[in-house]
Amino acid sequence: MIDLHTHTNESDGSSSPEELIDQALAIGLEAMAICDHDTFAGYDQALPVAKARGLDLVCGIELSTRLVGKTERAVHLLGYFLHEPPPAAFRAWLNEIQEERRDRNRRLVAKLKSAGVEIELAEVEALGRSLTGRPHFARVLVRKGYAANSDEAFEKYLDEAAPYYVERESPSVSAGIEKVLSAGGLPVLAHPVRLAIRDPIREEMLIGEMQAWGLGGIEVFHSDHRPADVARYAKIATEHRMAVSGGSDFHGEAKPQIALGTGVNNNLKIPRSVLDCLRQISTSRAR
Ligand code: AMP
Ligand code: FE
Ligand code: FE
Ligand code: ZN
Fold first, then answer.
1. DSSP 8-state class, residue 156
2. Residue ranges for the chain with pLDDT beneath 70
3. What is the pTM of this model?
Protein backbone atom coordinates (compact mmCIF):
# COMPACT_ATOMS: atom_id res chain seq x y z
CA MET A 1 0.00 0.00 0.00
CA ILE A 2 1.17 3.53 -0.85
CA ASP A 3 -0.11 7.08 -0.30
CA LEU A 4 0.87 9.77 -2.81
CA HIS A 5 -0.94 12.75 -1.27
CA THR A 6 -0.17 13.87 2.29
CA HIS A 7 0.31 17.15 4.13
CA THR A 8 2.60 18.13 7.02
CA ASN A 9 2.32 21.02 9.46
CA GLU A 10 4.46 23.08 7.07
CA SER A 11 1.22 23.62 5.16
CA ASP A 12 -2.16 22.78 6.68
CA GLY A 13 -1.58 19.31 8.12
CA SER A 14 -1.00 18.66 11.82
CA SER A 15 1.88 16.13 11.78
CA SER A 16 5.46 17.32 11.68
CA PRO A 17 7.49 15.89 8.77
CA GLU A 18 9.25 13.47 11.13
CA GLU A 19 5.97 12.35 12.76
CA LEU A 20 4.47 11.75 9.32
CA ILE A 21 7.37 9.46 8.34
CA ASP A 22 6.87 7.47 11.55
CA GLN A 23 3.11 7.24 10.97
CA ALA A 24 3.78 5.93 7.45
CA LEU A 25 6.21 3.30 8.73
CA ALA A 26 3.83 2.31 11.53
CA ILE A 27 1.04 1.41 9.09
CA GLY A 28 3.45 -0.28 6.68
CA LEU A 29 3.33 2.12 3.73
CA GLU A 30 5.73 1.06 0.98
CA ALA A 31 6.00 4.61 -0.37
CA MET A 32 4.62 8.04 0.40
CA ALA A 33 4.61 11.44 -1.25
CA ILE A 34 4.45 14.69 0.69
CA CYS A 35 2.41 17.21 -1.32
CA ASP A 36 2.22 20.26 0.89
CA HIS A 37 0.43 23.33 -0.48
CA ASP A 38 2.92 25.62 -2.23
CA THR A 39 5.99 24.62 -0.14
CA PHE A 40 8.79 22.03 -0.04
CA ALA A 41 9.63 22.78 3.60
CA GLY A 42 7.95 19.58 4.86
CA TYR A 43 9.55 17.40 2.19
CA ASP A 44 13.00 18.92 2.79
CA GLN A 45 12.84 18.04 6.50
CA ALA A 46 11.33 14.61 5.92
CA LEU A 47 13.83 13.42 3.31
CA PRO A 48 16.81 12.68 5.60
CA VAL A 49 14.46 11.06 8.15
CA ALA A 50 12.88 8.87 5.43
CA LYS A 51 16.34 7.84 4.19
CA ALA A 52 17.54 6.97 7.68
CA ARG A 53 14.39 5.00 8.57
CA GLY A 54 13.94 3.30 5.19
CA LEU A 55 10.81 4.83 3.63
CA ASP A 56 10.53 5.51 -0.10
CA LEU A 57 9.63 9.22 -0.01
CA VAL A 58 8.48 10.91 -3.20
CA CYS A 59 8.89 14.65 -3.79
CA GLY A 60 5.56 16.34 -4.41
CA ILE A 61 3.78 19.67 -4.27
CA GLU A 62 0.14 20.78 -4.39
CA LEU A 63 -0.38 24.09 -6.16
CA SER A 64 -3.51 26.19 -5.79
CA THR A 65 -4.27 27.43 -9.29
CA ARG A 66 -7.31 28.95 -10.89
CA LEU A 67 -9.15 28.13 -14.03
CA VAL A 68 -9.97 31.32 -15.84
CA GLY A 69 -13.29 31.20 -17.64
CA LYS A 70 -16.96 32.03 -17.40
CA THR A 71 -17.01 30.78 -13.83
CA GLU A 72 -13.61 30.97 -12.18
CA ARG A 73 -12.71 27.75 -10.39
CA ALA A 74 -9.98 26.79 -7.94
CA VAL A 75 -7.96 23.89 -9.31
CA HIS A 76 -5.44 21.96 -7.21
CA LEU A 77 -2.53 20.74 -9.23
CA LEU A 78 -0.10 18.10 -7.97
CA GLY A 79 3.50 17.98 -9.17
CA TYR A 80 5.60 14.83 -8.78
CA PHE A 81 9.23 13.89 -9.45
CA LEU A 82 10.57 17.41 -9.82
CA HIS A 83 14.32 17.56 -10.37
CA GLU A 84 16.15 16.65 -7.20
CA PRO A 85 16.62 18.98 -5.38
CA PRO A 86 13.71 21.10 -6.70
CA PRO A 87 15.23 23.88 -8.88
CA ALA A 88 15.90 27.30 -7.38
CA ALA A 89 13.72 29.01 -10.01
CA PHE A 90 10.74 26.90 -8.98
CA ARG A 91 11.33 27.65 -5.29
CA ALA A 92 11.57 31.37 -6.07
CA TRP A 93 8.22 31.12 -7.85
CA LEU A 94 6.73 29.42 -4.76
CA ASN A 95 8.00 32.34 -2.66
CA GLU A 96 6.05 34.74 -4.87
CA ILE A 97 2.91 32.64 -4.33
CA GLN A 98 3.48 32.71 -0.58
CA GLU A 99 3.87 36.47 -0.66
CA GLU A 100 0.51 36.73 -2.42
CA ARG A 101 -1.07 34.59 0.30
CA ARG A 102 0.47 36.83 3.00
CA ASP A 103 -0.97 39.86 1.26
CA ARG A 104 -4.40 38.17 1.14
CA ASN A 105 -4.07 37.34 4.86
CA ARG A 106 -3.43 40.99 5.73
CA ARG A 107 -6.51 42.06 3.75
CA LEU A 108 -8.61 39.28 5.28
CA VAL A 109 -7.67 40.36 8.82
CA ALA A 110 -8.58 43.96 7.98
CA LYS A 111 -11.95 42.92 6.57
CA LEU A 112 -12.76 40.70 9.57
CA LYS A 113 -11.72 43.46 11.97
CA SER A 114 -13.89 46.04 10.23
CA ALA A 115 -16.80 43.65 10.81
CA GLY A 116 -16.03 43.58 14.53
CA VAL A 117 -14.19 40.24 14.67
CA GLU A 118 -11.31 40.47 17.10
CA ILE A 119 -8.45 38.85 15.28
CA GLU A 120 -4.78 39.72 14.77
CA LEU A 121 -2.54 38.49 11.97
CA ALA A 122 0.14 37.52 14.48
CA GLU A 123 -2.11 35.02 16.29
CA VAL A 124 -3.05 33.36 12.99
CA GLU A 125 0.55 33.26 11.80
CA ALA A 126 1.58 31.70 15.11
CA LEU A 127 -0.32 28.56 14.02
CA GLY A 128 1.24 28.35 10.57
CA ARG A 129 4.84 27.52 9.77
CA SER A 130 5.96 27.95 6.14
CA LEU A 131 2.46 28.84 5.17
CA THR A 132 -0.47 30.48 6.91
CA GLY A 133 -3.74 29.84 5.15
CA ARG A 134 -7.46 29.92 5.68
CA PRO A 135 -7.46 26.67 7.70
CA HIS A 136 -5.36 28.52 10.31
CA PHE A 137 -7.87 31.38 10.31
CA ALA A 138 -10.58 28.78 10.90
CA ARG A 139 -8.76 27.46 13.97
CA VAL A 140 -8.49 30.93 15.50
CA LEU A 141 -12.15 31.72 14.77
CA VAL A 142 -13.22 28.45 16.42
CA ARG A 143 -10.97 28.99 19.43
CA LYS A 144 -12.44 32.46 19.95
CA GLY A 145 -16.00 31.23 19.68
CA TYR A 146 -16.88 32.88 16.36
CA ALA A 147 -17.69 29.46 14.90
CA ALA A 148 -18.51 26.05 16.37
CA ASN A 149 -16.09 24.21 14.13
CA SER A 150 -13.87 24.63 11.07
CA ASP A 151 -16.67 23.95 8.58
CA GLU A 152 -18.80 26.67 10.16
CA ALA A 153 -15.84 29.09 10.15
CA PHE A 154 -15.46 28.54 6.41
CA GLU A 155 -19.16 28.86 5.81
CA LYS A 156 -19.58 32.07 7.82
CA TYR A 157 -16.27 33.82 7.18
CA LEU A 158 -13.79 32.16 4.85
CA ASP A 159 -15.14 30.36 1.81
CA GLU A 160 -15.81 31.87 -1.60
CA ALA A 161 -19.48 32.46 -0.78
CA ALA A 162 -18.86 34.06 2.64
CA PRO A 163 -19.33 37.83 3.04
CA TYR A 164 -15.73 38.35 4.25
CA TYR A 165 -14.08 36.39 1.46
CA VAL A 166 -10.98 38.05 0.10
CA GLU A 167 -9.54 36.92 -3.18
CA ARG A 168 -5.94 35.93 -3.58
CA GLU A 169 -3.86 36.27 -6.71
CA SER A 170 -3.06 32.76 -7.84
CA PRO A 171 -1.48 31.34 -10.96
CA SER A 172 -3.61 29.99 -13.78
CA VAL A 173 -3.82 26.22 -14.28
CA SER A 174 -1.77 26.47 -17.48
CA ALA A 175 0.95 28.50 -15.71
CA GLY A 176 1.07 25.92 -12.90
CA ILE A 177 1.39 23.07 -15.40
CA GLU A 178 4.14 24.88 -17.25
CA LYS A 179 6.10 25.57 -14.05
CA VAL A 180 5.93 21.92 -12.96
CA LEU A 181 7.06 20.79 -16.42
CA SER A 182 9.93 23.25 -16.50
CA ALA A 183 11.11 21.90 -13.12
CA GLY A 184 11.18 18.39 -14.61
CA GLY A 185 7.99 17.26 -12.90
CA LEU A 186 4.80 15.45 -13.86
CA PRO A 187 1.66 17.62 -13.45
CA VAL A 188 -1.36 15.71 -12.12
CA LEU A 189 -4.90 16.97 -11.54
CA ALA A 190 -5.72 16.64 -7.80
CA HIS A 191 -9.09 15.30 -6.59
CA PRO A 192 -10.98 16.08 -9.85
CA VAL A 193 -14.30 15.49 -8.10
CA ARG A 194 -13.81 18.88 -6.43
CA LEU A 195 -14.08 20.63 -9.78
CA ALA A 196 -17.77 19.92 -9.13
CA ILE A 197 -18.68 19.63 -12.78
CA ARG A 198 -21.95 17.73 -12.88
CA ASP A 199 -22.00 16.93 -16.57
CA PRO A 200 -19.49 14.10 -17.20
CA ILE A 201 -19.04 15.16 -20.83
CA ARG A 202 -18.06 18.70 -19.86
CA GLU A 203 -15.83 17.29 -17.13
CA GLU A 204 -13.96 15.12 -19.61
CA MET A 205 -13.66 18.02 -22.08
CA LEU A 206 -12.11 20.19 -19.40
CA ILE A 207 -9.61 17.49 -18.45
CA GLY A 208 -8.81 17.14 -22.17
CA GLU A 209 -8.18 20.88 -22.35
CA MET A 210 -5.77 20.68 -19.41
CA GLN A 211 -4.04 17.75 -21.10
CA ALA A 212 -3.43 19.98 -24.11
CA TRP A 213 -1.68 22.41 -21.73
CA GLY A 214 0.60 19.56 -20.59
CA LEU A 215 -1.29 17.85 -17.76
CA GLY A 216 0.13 14.34 -17.49
CA GLY A 217 -2.09 12.53 -15.01
CA ILE A 218 -5.22 12.33 -12.91
CA GLU A 219 -5.56 11.60 -9.20
CA VAL A 220 -7.97 8.71 -9.70
CA PHE A 221 -7.82 7.40 -6.12
CA HIS A 222 -8.70 9.93 -3.40
CA SER A 223 -10.57 9.96 -0.07
CA ASP A 224 -13.35 12.10 -1.62
CA HIS A 225 -13.94 9.74 -4.55
CA ARG A 226 -16.82 7.29 -4.46
CA PRO A 227 -16.41 4.03 -6.42
CA ALA A 228 -18.30 5.57 -9.38
CA ASP A 229 -15.86 8.53 -9.42
CA VAL A 230 -12.86 6.20 -9.37
CA ALA A 231 -14.30 4.24 -12.30
CA ARG A 232 -15.05 7.42 -14.29
CA TYR A 233 -11.61 8.96 -13.78
CA ALA A 234 -9.83 5.65 -14.47
CA LYS A 235 -11.67 5.45 -17.78
CA ILE A 236 -10.76 9.04 -18.70
CA ALA A 237 -7.11 8.34 -17.84
CA THR A 238 -7.04 5.22 -20.02
CA GLU A 239 -8.80 6.83 -22.96
CA HIS A 240 -6.65 9.97 -22.83
CA ARG A 241 -3.47 7.96 -22.17
CA MET A 242 -2.83 9.84 -18.94
CA ALA A 243 -1.05 8.63 -15.80
CA VAL A 244 -3.01 7.50 -12.74
CA SER A 245 -2.17 8.73 -9.25
CA GLY A 246 -3.74 8.30 -5.84
CA GLY A 247 -3.53 9.39 -2.25
CA SER A 248 -5.55 10.04 0.86
CA ASP A 249 -4.95 13.82 1.21
CA PHE A 250 -4.06 13.14 4.84
CA HIS A 251 -4.02 16.32 7.00
CA GLY A 252 -3.79 14.65 10.45
CA GLU A 253 -5.96 16.19 13.17
CA ALA A 254 -6.88 19.01 10.81
CA LYS A 255 -9.11 16.54 8.88
CA PRO A 256 -9.55 13.68 11.36
CA GLN A 257 -11.92 11.66 9.17
CA ILE A 258 -9.09 10.97 6.70
CA ALA A 259 -6.66 8.20 7.67
CA LEU A 260 -3.15 7.97 6.25
CA GLY A 261 -3.04 5.31 3.51
CA THR A 262 -6.60 4.06 3.93
CA GLY A 263 -8.65 7.24 3.45
CA VAL A 264 -12.20 7.68 4.75
CA ASN A 265 -13.76 4.52 6.17
CA ASN A 266 -11.10 2.42 4.46
CA ASN A 267 -12.03 3.57 0.97
CA LEU A 268 -8.43 3.41 -0.30
CA LYS A 269 -5.86 0.69 -0.85
CA ILE A 270 -3.48 1.96 -3.50
CA PRO A 271 -1.01 -0.64 -4.79
CA ARG A 272 2.68 0.01 -5.29
CA SER A 273 2.21 -0.51 -9.04
CA VAL A 274 0.48 2.91 -9.27
CA LEU A 275 3.74 4.59 -8.27
CA ASP A 276 5.81 2.39 -10.59
CA CYS A 277 3.60 3.36 -13.57
CA LEU A 278 3.61 7.02 -12.59
CA ARG A 279 7.42 7.05 -12.42
CA GLN A 280 7.72 5.24 -15.73
CA ILE A 281 5.41 7.70 -17.49
CA SER A 282 7.24 10.66 -15.97
CA THR A 283 10.60 9.30 -17.15
CA SER A 284 9.41 8.52 -20.66
CA ARG A 285 7.81 11.96 -21.05
CA ALA A 286 11.04 13.64 -19.96
CA ARG A 287 13.01 12.08 -22.80
P1 AMP B 1 -5.79 29.26 1.28
O2 AMP B 1 -4.87 28.63 0.30
O3 AMP B 1 -5.09 29.93 2.40
O4 AMP B 1 -6.80 30.12 0.61
O5 AMP B 1 -6.60 28.05 1.99
C6 AMP B 1 -7.11 27.04 1.17
C7 AMP B 1 -7.25 25.76 1.97
O8 AMP B 1 -8.37 25.89 2.84
C9 AMP B 1 -7.57 24.57 1.08
O10 AMP B 1 -6.41 23.93 0.65
C11 AMP B 1 -8.39 23.69 1.98
O12 AMP B 1 -7.54 22.83 2.73
C13 AMP B 1 -9.07 24.66 2.92
N14 AMP B 1 -10.46 24.93 2.52
C15 AMP B 1 -10.88 25.66 1.47
N16 AMP B 1 -12.24 25.75 1.45
C17 AMP B 1 -12.68 25.04 2.51
C18 AMP B 1 -13.98 24.75 3.05
N19 AMP B 1 -15.10 25.21 2.47
N20 AMP B 1 -14.05 24.00 4.17
C21 AMP B 1 -12.93 23.55 4.77
N22 AMP B 1 -11.67 23.78 4.31
C23 AMP B 1 -11.54 24.52 3.20
FE1 FE C 1 -5.05 21.26 2.48
FE1 FE D 1 -6.25 19.81 -2.54
ZN1 ZN E 1 -4.10 18.12 -0.51
1. I
2. 287
3. 0.94
Query: Using a 6 Å cutoff on CB, does residue 128 contact ligand 1?
Result: no
270 C-beta neighbours (distance < 10 Å), count: 26
List domains and CATH numbers for the chain.
Answer: 2-94+172-286 (3.20.20.140), 103-158 (no CATH)
Query: Which amino acid, 1?
Result: M
Answer yes or no: are the C-beta atoms of 30 and 272 closer than 8 Å.
Answer: yes
Identify the CA nearest to 65 among candidates 100, 102, 30, 34.
100
The span from the CA of 270 to the CA of 95, in Å, is 32
Helix residue spans in 199-270 (DSSP H): 200-212, 227-239
pLDDT at residue 169 in the model: 87
What's the pLDDT tens digit per position in 89-101?
999 999 999 999 9
Q: Tell which atom from ligand 1 comes closest to the C-alpha of 251.
A: 12
Instruction: Determine the longest span between alpha carbons in the chain, in angstroms.
Output: 57
